[in-house]
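ok trying this again, last paste got cut off
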Amino acid sequence: MSGADDPQDPDPAGVPPEEQAPREERRSRRSLPLVLAGVVSALVLGAALVAPLVDRVVRGDEQARRALDLSLVETWEILDRSHTTDDVTYEQNPPAGGAHAPVWLACGVYDEIVRDEVAVHDLEHGSVWITHDPELSGADLAALADLLPDNAIMSPRDDLPSPVVVTVWGAQLQLDGADDPRLGLFLEEYGDGHTAPEFGVSCQGGTPAPDGSLPEQGTDA
C-alpha cells in the first residue's frame, strides 16, 4: 500500500524539509556524470571536426601552397623560333624566348653579361636561365650556383626588374633574392624544360663565349 507518509513516495510533499535537500544533492550527484559525459563527447566530436580544418590551414594543401607561391609566374606563348645573326628586341627582361642566334651558350655559371640572342637559344633547348643583379654578394652567387640545374646557365644582367629572375622558354619568375624559396619551387615545376620547343636537348656543346663567338662549337639547324 502507498500513502502520503510512505518513505518510498517520490512526491516531496510528504518529505520533511530537512530531508529534501539531501535528496536533491543525491539527484545532482547522479546526473553530474551524465552531464560531464555529454560535454566531453561534444568536445571530442568538435575537435575531430575542427582538427582537419586547422591542419589544412596551418600546413596547407601542397598543391594549393605551390599554386600560391608560383602565382606570380608570368607565361607567354612564343612561336617565333627563327635563327638570326641580328640583335633582337625582346618583350621580356630577360627574354623568355623568340628569335635567336644560331649558336647557343654552354651550360654553366658566367661572371659577365651574356648576349641575349645566344641565351635564348639555350631556352629553346629546355635550359633554365638564372639572371641576377651584378652587385649580388659572393655568398648569394654561391647559393644560386648550388641550385643551378645541370642543363642551365647563370649570368649577371643589368636593369633587372628584381634582384634575381629565373626564366625558361615561355615562363619567368621575378625573385626577391638568392634565398627566395620560390626559386626551388620554380625549378621543380619548370626545371625539366618541358615548356621548350626542343624539350630534352642539352645546352652541352654550346660556345663558352658569352658573346656567342666560336659558332662552330655550338650550332644547329
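PB: full thing came through this time. The longest strand covers residues 128-132.
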